[in-house]
Write the structure tokens for this entry.
Amino acid sequence: AQRVTQPEKLLSVFKGAPVELKCNYSYSGSPELFWYVQYSRQRLQLLLRHISRESIKGFTADLNKGETSFHLKKPFAQEEDSAMYYCAPSGYSTLTFGKGTMLLVSP
Amino acid sequence: DVKVTQSSRYLVKRTGEKVFLECVQDMDHENMFWYRQDPGLGLRLIYFSYDVKMKEKGDIPEGYSVSREKKERFSLILESASTNQTSMYLCASSSSLRGSGRNYEQYFGPGTRLTVT
């Protein structure tokens, strides 16, 4: 069965601290991996995908096929990063969303 | 800019009522999706459609049906609403390259918060 695990429901850090939001997946084949974000009162939107190998808003995510992980990292968190983050591996046509991690960045 | 719109932001219905949630996208996307979003459970796929008149069950289709008569419109139907269907419902759409098996970015609507009393 396809599964994605985000072990932390809530991650609370101070501004300027490093952040790592964990994501582990169990998937057949070679899925594409995505991170989606939902800021307060905004719609869910794509943050980044692993095939792009890009940094968005200072966030990066490395796919580790051996550990089947796709952790999201940022070296210095900002208050505006406070949001709900979802990891989502993809199958042929669909995404499987994790339960999400709420990131709170305090001043 | 891709736009996905949903017919209502808030909806209150009574148990047993038939409920229609409408979603429209304006980017000629092939794929459309309905999710429900619940605290602690994340997003769960109810149904999706990869073409007009085509539909596939997602992870939690029980109690729901869908309709896609036109490419831009995807409707979610609750035949007989129940209190455990109180939730936030999100619609999404995406393009896809037929036969490639690759997924493209899903664009989400603002959501409909449905309360069944």
